[in-house]
Specification:
Length: 206
């Protein structure tokens, strides 16, 4: 993301995982961010993922991004979300083994993050969950713990033609989960990344 970004490799369930860390001064905890679909160009360098990392650091959280198995220098092969969930949990275990934790994901990464929330709660102190462009039309997104509702931010573009808004509403409606809809915006938030950053920043500071 910038000259201060730390790049490292750690062990994962299917081999080495590539990780990037942007540290916040006097960080209050760690936010681990998951990227879009590995088979459709998704990487930890995705602009939405980097925007989430910027918001994280500005809010005082160290941002940890990583490449799922089979992406970039990460070893292994795409596993339809199952192995990718284990990748995410391995990164949390290595880079944020204790203390306050935030989880964020974009598109496919939001789907994987939803399942990580279920696996980690209530053992971990999950302060915030941020899901952007949640891939509810393509994958079975997990039902989130009701007691975390006020800590969850779901953002979706009104004109998302990759993941239709109604599919996210259909997932969120039975849980009475609020969805913040950004008018006229598509899946990748083209032209509105500053708005996305500021919206996430307000949530993390709340």
């Amino acid at each position: 993301m910038n000259a201060q970004t730390e790049h490292l490799k750690q062990d994962g369930p299917a081999g080495v995982l590539e990780v990037a860390i942007d540290r916040a001064p006097d960080a209050r905890g760690v936010m681990v961010i998951s990227h879009p679909h590995p088979l459709h160009g998704g990487t930890m360098s995705n602009k939405v993922v980097q925007t989430l990392a910027r918001a994280s650091v500005l809010a005082g959280w160290t941002a940890v991004r990583f490449n799922f198995r089979g992406v970039g220098s990460s070893e292994g092969a795409y596993d339809e979300g199952r192995g990718e969930l284990e990748d995410l949990l391995a990164v949390v275990g290595s880079q944020a083994p204790a203390g306050p934790l935030c989880l964020a994901g974009f598109s496919f990464g939001a789907f994987v993050t939803s399942h990580a929330v279920v696996r980690l709660h209530p053992a971990r102190d999950l302060q915030h969950v941020v899901l952007v462009g949640t891939a509810a039309s393509r994958f079975e997104v997990a039902e989130l713990p009701a007691e975390l509702q006020t800590r969850i931010l779901i953002i979706h573009g009104e004109q998302d033609d990759t993941v239709p808004l109604e599919s996210v509403m259909a997932w969120a409606r039975p849980q009475v989960l609020p969805v913040l809809v950004v008018p006229t915006v598509g899946h990748f938030f083209h032209g509105q990344l500053p708005l996305l950053r500021d919206t996430v920043l307000r949530h993390l500071r709340a």
